[in-house]
Amino acid sequence: MIDKLLQDFDISRFQHDLIQWYQENKRDLPWRKSQDPYKVWISEIMLQQTKVDTVIPYFYHFTEKYPTPQKLAQAEEQEVLKAWEGLGYYSRARNLHTAVKEVVAKYDGQVPSDEKHLGKLKGIGPYTKGAILSIAFDQPVPAVDGNVMRVFSRVLHIEEDIAQAKTKKLFEKVVGEVISKEDPSSFNQGLMELGALVCTPKKPQCSLCPVNEHCQAFALGAEEKLPIKSKAKKQKRVSYVALLIQDEQGRIVIEKRADNGLLANLWQFPMVPIKEVGFTHLESYVYREHGIPIQLQQKQGNLRHVFSHLIWEIDIYQASIISGEKFQKNKQLKLVSKQDLEQYPFPVPHQKMMKYI
Q1: Do residues 171 and 147 touch, judged by C-beta distance below 8 A?
Q2: What residue spans of the chain are helical by DSSP H?
Q3: Where in the chain do CATH 3.90.79.10 domains reside?
Q4: Exposed/middle/buried for 334, CB within 10 Å: 0-12, 13-18, 19+?
């Protein structure tokens, strides 16, 4: 199939046109200032499912705080999560931290340039591996993400469903054939840049595209019909009551989430799955689950937070610990002052609740 797709495709001219355009038009981004594999790695992890403008300040802060693999490996996980706070998809930070520790322990702090060793590190999939090897080490390894699949689905008029794993494998083979051996770094970054700036999901700017003469979809007027992607499953909605519980000294109850799953090891204000528990049983549920005797007070507000697969709909209430009752010790719970809240990593929806305290 690859031979058929590339039968009349001028690979060397395509490489030339793409790389020339990239070198003349690339954005001035902080992770492009060097080929340091550690910094390339951090940027690629941060950029997963996150916009460039959002990542830039986090990249500066994170690399200033942890300028070397050794510095990151020495850090406590809670500290790393705090540095990542607000960027979302926190498993990225935990996996990066784990993998960097392995790099320091096994490879003397040098990010491996070997495809096999690099690919075994936690959190490094085929795309991230290809990005690091091509950008930092100038190796002609494909780095195929949604941007790249969109570009090549249009250029080669590929009508396979890009939501399927086998289609991604097909694009990896295509890019493996087409990638520049002389400048794989500029080639892969050029594809990413083209997808981000010109060959966009909606209303691609084909008249400005440096490779439009190679593009079959453009020739057929079919660029907006591609890529083909089956719809993801509908997001599940879950309703919660979040409790801002304070004691007589004004200290606030915070809860550490489980060490696996969604938002693992982050802190939050206690949340009650209200449809399961029922509003009338809320106080007894909190006592049963957490050992805290509370009195519910007024509602402060509500918010909605959208994850890729889930929607949280949260009503926010104040509550107080009933005077004279003992707060039962629980390693997942802490009583902290308002000033000390900023020492703990909180997910975005819980950061937004702090204005009500």
Answers
A1: no
A2: 2-5, 11-25, 37-47, 52-65, 69-74, 77-84, 91-107, 115-119, 126-137, 146-155, 165-178, 184-197, 216-220, 274-277, 282-290, 348-353
A3: 236-356
A4: middle
Q: What are the start and end residues of each CATH 1.10.340.30 domain in the chain?
A: 2-225
The domain made up of 2-225 is a member of CATH 1.10.340.30: yes
DSSP designation for 19: H
Of 24, 44, 172, 182, which is the active-site residue?
44
**Helix/strand/coil percent split, the chain, to 5:** 50, 15, 35
Can you name the CATH fold of 236-356?
Nucleoside Triphosphate Pyrophosphohydrolase (3.90.79)
Q: What is the mean pLDDT of residues 3-21?
A: 92
Residues 6+ away with beta carbon under 8 Å from 231: none
Are 279 and 273 contacting, i.e. CB atoms less than 8 angstroms apart? no
Average pLDDT rounded to a whole number, residues 166-177: 93
pTM listed for this prediction: 0.85
Residue type, 292: I
Q: What is the pLDDT of residues 38-61, one digit of tens each?
A: 999 999 999 998 899 999 999 999
Alpha-carbon distance 208 to 240, whole Å?
Answer: 48
The rounded distance, in Å, linking the Cα atoms of 269 and 347 is 10
Distance of CA 46 to CAs 49, 54, 241, 281, Å?
A: 8, 9, 31, 41
77 catalytic per annotation? no
pLDDT confidence of residue 97: 97
Region 91-119 average pLDDT: 96
